[in-house]
Amino acid sequence: MRLIESTYISLDGMVTGDAFWGAQQGFQGDAHNQHAATLLGTADALLLGRQTYDVFSVSWPERPGELADLINPLPKYVASRTLTEATWNTKVLHGDAVEAVAELKKSREGTLLKYGTGSFSRALVDAGLLDELQLWVHPFVAGSGERLLPGISPTQLALAAVTEVGNGVVILTYAPNH
Q1: pLDDT tens, position by position, 120-144
Q2: Residue 110: domain span
Q3: Could you give the number of structural domains in the chain?
Q4: Host H or E run for residue 77
């Protein structure tokens, strides 16, 4: 199973924060949504960290439209040390999340799509489990927030593709440089 992480990022490397979330929404358009739908259409399951799961599981089931129609029925896996029960077609990965993802990759075919970034993403990259990183670079400076993969071990990636999705947003797709 291939593991793809897809995440939004500002020009100054931020992936969260009030300024970040407010600003990035203004850049979504038809081409942006079509690329998101194409990516979701290739996914056989979603992988989420606990914080992303908490936000997505509340907001996505209530949304209408093509993206919701694609994301809602997908099987989902959430990495959490504290979550005991999950909804929204989700299985909790208890224990060592990196080991659980390694097992998932060995036991299934297809594509596992991960949204969100943080300590879980760092651990997956450090363990060599990420097959592709898609950075949706938005043309604004957030100024504050959490940076992409802080504290990660030195890692080299190779540029695999550049996709322009309108409104100045460019998706940089990277693959591990083995």
Answers
A1: 998 999 999 999 999 999 999 999 9
A2: 2-176
A3: 1
A4: strand 76-79
